[in-house]
Specification:
5-stranded parallel sheet, Rossmann fold, globular
Length: 146
């Protein structure tokens, strides 16, 4: 049924509420789980892209390092002993990266958490989950925490 399940996470405990569902599906179907943390393109990279001012990397605050550590901790907590869980970090526009990654990795299902916003808050804050639902040609499992 499913051979690869993509689980985008934003680093919050809220987004992690999908993990027990993804784990259960993976165990039932033998699917591989890919945990994906997208680092949104920082505004300062856009502002200083053509500047001669160097942006010094700082490992303590390096977004990629922090994201990789987060995914490894999440993997250990939710997928103990599972060999079929991969952790990936990418950067860019969140929905675009998720959809491109899913297509490039032959994913069968995207499983993620939604805030379930409506009205003005959805208009103001947007919804990555809604954008994924509208643009994806793949099945999408959305979990809304109680």
């Amino acid at each position: 049924m499913f051979s690869k399940i993509l689980v985008p996470l934003d680093g919050s405990t809220f987004s992690e509420t999908v993990l027990p569902h993804a784990n259960a599906l993976a165990q039932a179907t033998g699917a591989q789980v890919i945990l994906l943390r997208v680092i949104p393109t920082p505004i300062h990279n856009l502002v200083f892209a053509n500047s001669s001012m160097p942006l010094e990397p700082n490992p303590e605050y390096d977004a990629r390092t922090i994201a990789e550590g987060y995914l490894q901790r999440t993997r250990a907590e939710y997928f103990t002993g599972a060999d079929n869980v991969q952790a990936e970090v990418s950067g860019g526009a969140t929905a675009d990266v998720i959809l491109e990654f899913a297509a490039g990795q032959d994913v069968d299902l995207i499983a993620m958490t939604t805030h379930g916003r409506s009205g003005i808050s959805r208009v103001m804050l947007g919804s990555v989950a809604e954008e994924i639902m509208q643009r994806s040609h793949l099945p999408v499992l959305l979990v809304r925490p109680a």
